[in-house]
Design a protein that fits this description.
Elongation Factor Tu (Ef-tu), domain 3; alpha+beta; 35% strand; 6-stranded mixed sheet; 3 domains; 428 residues; Rossmann fold; 8 helices; 23 strands
Length: 428
């Protein structure tokens, strides 16, 4: 098996119309991931729709409605390779009403490119996206100061925006010295994939070089084993085969494990007989591996999707109640105590009741605005206390962050997203 290049999920975030899609389109085109002919078609299409200059954005905005409005609605996923890494690029919408999609993007991103237009600087959503990406665990960040062509490629304009953004990032808890700032002009293509002669004052990396400078995300192999169950198959001649993705730790053949909550809510112990990935037998599996396993001692009716497998000496945590930091994204009215939506966490979907709203926070800075508010609404961030209606495995952000993040959904829409900060273990 050929050694795969390390994989990085890269999300593009930032305020609407600051040029995220155009930047991604330009990267894809200049790197040869989108052909000349496809580009020419998009160019004609853009002109036809009276959106000349939007052809690069159209590479990502392949929904018809988006092309007519010139706005990114849904999350577009595109594959993209450099000599060093293999990327999945997630283009996150900047529009206020599309923030809910941005969450699903950021919660699976290893790194983010924050696009800020030189002619606008930091805007409301720039702030929100930065706070959200921090809350949801984005570790590395590149700031692309776009539309430099609209400001005559001036160094002082770049420095001013850099200062503005640095202040914002600092207040959110990012380490400024680890962040790359890159001046670009995506439409003409300056400094995105190709170096430019328009900014003699700048000696740093182009955007593609900055992306290549990202550190490979560390695999959380030193954390305890956690594998949420995605499906359970019954295969003739083999028996019960749970399938899932290892989130943390290392799984080994012969290992003694337990699946919780399991049907009785007490956990089902077993021993790993075999591990298979892409039809190949493996001795071990590590984070990011999607595997099917055969476990001695576990029957078809014992376990289900949403259960989590872990080692017997470090059983996954079943929470009786937990405290979470959430951001309300898209609720039709207000959220009050007693509200019981469905929490989507790893592979589990469990109804949970909000039993207390402890603090309301400023979504751009995280500072406390109000203790025990009566309600929270769109745009608010808050600490809430939550009680699952049935047994649920969730871990604290400080212990196993990969099992602490969740989305809250209600009648088909993502209402909120957040992370578990504290919990009370369920005792028998």
């Amino acid at each position: 098996m050929a050694k795969h290049k390390p994989h990085i999920n890269l999300v593009f975030i930032g305020h609407v119309d600051h040029g995220k899609s155009t930047t991604v389109g330009r990267l894809m085109f200049d790197s040869g991931n989108v052909g000349e002919q496809a580009m020419r078609k998009l160019k004609e299409k853009a002109a036809e729709l009276g959106k000349a200059g939007f052809e690069f954005a159209f590479v990502m905005d392949n929904l018809k409605e988006e092309q007519e409005r010139g706005v990114t609605i849904d999350l577009a996923h595109k594959k993209f390779e450099t000599d060093k890494y293999y990327f999945t690029i997630i283009d996150a919408p900047g529009h206020r009403d599309f923030v809910k999609n941005m969450i699903t993007g950021a919660s699976q991103a290893d790194a983010a490119v924050l696009v800020v237009a030189a002619n606008d600087g930091v805007m409301a959503q720039t702030k929100e996206h930065v706070f959200l990406s921090k809350t949801l665990g984005v570790q590395q960040l590149i700031v692309a100061v776009n539309k430099m062509d609209m400001k005559d490629y001036a160094e002082d304009v770049f420095n001013k925006v850099k200062e503005q953004v640095s202040a914002l990032l600092k207040s959110t808890g990012f380490k400024i010295d680890e962040i790359q700032f890159v001046p670009i002009a995506s439409l003409p293509g300056d400094n995105v994939f190709k170096k430019t002669d328009k900014m003699g004052w700048y000696s740093g990396p182009s955007l593609i070089d900055a992306i290549n400078n990202l550190k490979e995300p560390e695999k959380p192999t030193s954390l305890p084993l956690r594998m949420p169950i995605q499906d359970v198959y019954n295969i003739t001649g083999i028996g019960v085969v749970p399938v899932g993705r290892v989130e943390t730790g290392i799984m080994k053949v012969g290992q003694k494990v337990i699946v919780v909550p399991g049907r009785e809510g007490k956990g089902v112990p077993g021993e790993i007989k075999s591990i298979e990935m892409h039809h190949e037998q493996m001795e071990t599996a590590e984070p990011g591996d999607n595997v099917g396993i055969n476990v001695r001692g576990i029957g078809k009716k014992d376990i289900a999707k949403g259960d989590v497998l872990g080692p017997v000496d470090n059983v996954p945590t079943i929470a009786k109640e937990f405290t979470a930091q959430i951001v309300v994204l898209n609720h039709p009215s207000v959220i009050t105590v007693g509200y019981t939506p469905v929490f989507h966490i790893h592979t589990a979907q469990v109804a949970c009741q909000i039993v207390a709203i402890e603090k309301k926070l400023n979504p751009a800075t995280g500072e406390v605005l109000e203790e025990n508010p009566d309600f929270i609404k769109n745009g608010d961030a808050a600490f809430v206390k939550v009680k699952p209606v049935q047994p649920l495995v969730i871990e604290k952000q400080s212990v196993i962050p990969q099992l602490a993040r969740f989305a809250v959904r209600d009648s088909g829409a993502t209402v909120a997203a957040g992370i578990c900060t504290e919990l009370v273990k369920k005792t028998e």
